[in-house]
Amino acid sequence: MENNKVLFNIEKIDRETLPHYYDYGKIVSAIQQKLRDEAGFDFQMYSDEDTSNEIWDILEEDLKEESPEVRLISHIYQEGETKTISSNHTEKALEFIVKPRVVNGLYYYPHYGVALSRVLIFQSDGEMNHDFIFAENDACLVSFLQYVLKRKRDYIKNYVTVFTDTEDGVETDIESITSLVRRDDVFLEETLKKEIYRSIDEFFTEGREFFKTYDIPYKRGILLYGKPGNGKTTLVKSIASSINAPVAYWQITEFSSSYTIKEVFSSVLKLAPMVLVIEDIDSMPNGARSVFLNTLDGATSKEGVFLIGTTNYPEKIDPALMNRSGRFDRAYEIKLPTKELRYHYLMNKKIARILSEQEIEEVVDATVDFSYAQLNELYTSIALEWHYEQKVDIARVCADLKSIQHKQQKQTWEETLASSSIGFAPFTNE
């Protein structure tokens, strides 16, 4: 930008004239001069109000993977940190990772003519990170943003994006899919299982011919409901593990609002086609429900989004979610496992290594009204008792778990348990 088209130029003012701007301006001016020396042309500076999360996520990912697309031109402060130490928990061990620090670096994407720098700005009332985006021109920046969205869509297929509504807006994290859940690990009534997976698979076929052939809007919404522990989360994990598309979880909280709803759907649509899972959808605050419904009704608000809602309390679901096409198209009840499913679930856990066929049948008959979560706990109890005793009192183990189940349902516990100390000796002054 020509100097005669601006009111203030950092080279023509001093700190006494505009103290805060002077400190900020000196940093920007130094960065622009460094870029000019490096690339041989002037860079324009841009403000970003819509894609900043994606830009900086990709920069961090490119640095972690040592991508040839980006290189470090310079650090901003000589005395500032240049690398970051983090840890990653895997099934095998705790790994420590040393990677370049985004803050305090000036990074350049030469192929796109774009530079990025996240700088710590020091002021009299404190300090704050400021994000700077530079590009040769508008076309360069648009091309870079297309790279960013494609790059993010590709790499987050190996992660689950988690949106959490907080008092300060939507907090976004990505979590590695550390353990894959196979479709064979999902135990549902066969017709229901086939219908759900068929719907998912057809949605994410490459050509989307089904939707084009039958003139069906390219969006889908299903609601999974039923008692806790019956496999709703396992079903969702198996979907995340078995499709070639991004998956996001949205955790509704008491801070969910019209702002967070719009922010989540805006982020999701950039990466569509993808799956958006809303767990415990019945917990949507009353004040935000109308905005949520209007968002679902929007002509493009769900384009390319396969929406999965889950709830343990269908009676709390707003009827308006279900009485209009385009919100949730189908509701599926995830029921307690049948006798056949209980048998197959326990066999899949390899319980036959411990119990005889007759004993397994005894367990299956004794676990009517058990959820999969309770069957899993039962298996653990049986395995522990077998490991230490080399025998299992099946009747007692099943009775113990049934007693706990009854107390949980009735929310009643032994008075002696409530009045006694658990894990700590009572405090006395003696």
Please write out the topology:
Elements: H1 19-39, E1 44-46, H2 52-64, E2 71-75, E3 83-89, E4 94-100, E5 105-109, E6 114-123, E7 126-135, H3 138-155, E8 159-166, E9 169-176, H4 190-203, H5 209-213, E10 220-225, H6 232-242, E11 247-251, H7 258-271, E12 274-279, H8 286-297, E13 305-311, E14 330-333, H9 339-348, H10 357-366, H11 372-389, H12 394-410, H13 415-419
Parallel strand pairs: 8-11, 10-13, 10-14, 11-12, 12-13
Antiparallel strand pairs: 1-7, 2-5, 3-4, 5-6, 6-7, 8-9
Your description of this structure?
The chain has 430 residues and is of the alpha/beta class. It is 39% helix and 21% strand. The strands form three sheets. A seven-stranded mixed β-sheet has the order 9-8-11-12-13-10-14, sandwiched between helices. Helix 7 packs parallel to helix 8, helix 9 packs across helix 10 and helix 10 (357-366) runs parallel beside helix 12 (394-410). The longest helix has 21 residues, at 19-39. The chain starts with 18 loop residues before the first helix and ends in an 11-residue tail after the last helix. Mean pLDDT is 85; it is low at 413-430.
